[in-house]
Design brief:
globular, binds 2-oxoglutaric acid
Length: 309
């Protein structure tokens, strides 16, 4: 494996102008084509690229692709800059919305503004057997992190040890997985994952497309991930993809039909606020109590409205 220490970074205003945008090949100088460890000027790891590392597990377990492929219809308008657009307000709500992209969050989530209890995501709760079929892939990703970036793995493992096991993929240091299907992320930094940890990103790839390179624009480093490749990375550094396109130049939602293009990226990580979650059954009781309160409130409103009417 080659080791590379970066010396220079892109000027802050150049990066600021790239935020939220889909990148081009003019935005990188270095293309990693073999196993590599890339360090930032201060010695912290930017990424470790392990080409083909996951091919054995993907070959042995064809069901892993089937489960991930099956997630392609789950769309999210909550990916912010990663969607390649700016968030827009939703009339009458505090929430904002970005472009809908094929991005699914599976596994566990901590409390949020609207959902004040910890939980498995809706898909996960409804498809536990399918979720469990992903374990061999996730175990390989976690083991690679332990082997290649042991201090970050250890920091994550320490948090995992303080988190209820209901929320952790067994024998891994992951609570949560984002699965993207065939869209180029705009330049963004991940949020919510453990700052002292490290992100892991696998790619499953089909068809004859070009582009979709993963780029760290501040460092002008990129990688064109092939099927079965794994990259361990600091997702708090700016990153995004170049535009994907079929050989004849088509680059929209019709790419799958045109050239069979499919690029699934699986990002597995630990969400740092999971340590504060009670056991799943306890959190589910909280959720029920909240729902009941809301229903009673809605009922009272209706009654009052009726009386007024
Ligand atoms: O698919 C990729 O290469 C990047 C995915 C990513 O950055 C994300 O989901 O946050």
């Amino acid at each position: 494996m080659i080791e590379m220490r970066l010396r220079s970074r892109t000027a802050p205003d150049t990066v600021a102008a790239q935020v939220g945008k889909v990148l081009t090949d003019a935005d990188h100088d270095v293309l990693l084509t073999g196993p590599a460890r890339v360090l930032m000027p201060d010695g912290r790891p930017l990424c470790v690229y392990l080409p083909g590392h996951l091919s054995p597990v993907l070959d042995r377990r064809p069901e892993v692709y089937e489960v991930l492929h099956g997630l392609r219809n789950l769309k999210s308008d909550n990916r912010g800059l990663a969607s390649g657009t700016r968030r827009r307000p939703i009339p009458g709500q505090k929430r904002t919305r970005a472009k809908r992209v094929a991005s699914a969050v599976i596994g566990s989530l901590e409390t949020a503004q609207r959902q004040t209890y910890c939980r498995l995501t809706a898909w996960t709760g409804d498809h536990l057997p399918a979720y469990e079929q992903l374990r061999p892939l996730l175990r390989s990703m976690s083991a690679a992190l332990a082997d290649h970036v042991p201090d970050r793995w250890a920091a994550q493992a320490e948090h995992v040890a303080r988190t209820h096991r209901d929320y952790i993929v067994p024998d891994t240091v992951f609570s949560t997985i984002t699965v993207n299907n065939t869209y180029s992320t705009g330049v963004h930094q991940d949020a919510g994952d453990l700052a002292a940890g490290f992100s892991t990103l696998a790619v499953l790839r089909r068809g004859a497309y070009t582009g979709g390179r993963l780029v760290f624009p501040e460092w002008r480093v990129s990688v064109d991930m092939a099927d079965g490749d794994l990259i361990l990375m600091d997702a708090h550094q700016w990153h995004g993809n170049t535009r994907m396109e079929c050989p004849h130049g088509l680059n929209d939602d019709r790419m799958r039909k045109c050239c069979g293009a499919e690029r699934i990226s699986v990002v597995a990580y630990f969400r740092e606020r999971m340590t504060g979650c009670g056991p799943l059954a306890e959190e589910a009781r909280k959720a029920e109590a909240i729902a009941e309160k809301r229903n009673t409130f809605a009922g009272k409103l209706t009654q009052a409205d009726l009386e007024r009417g």
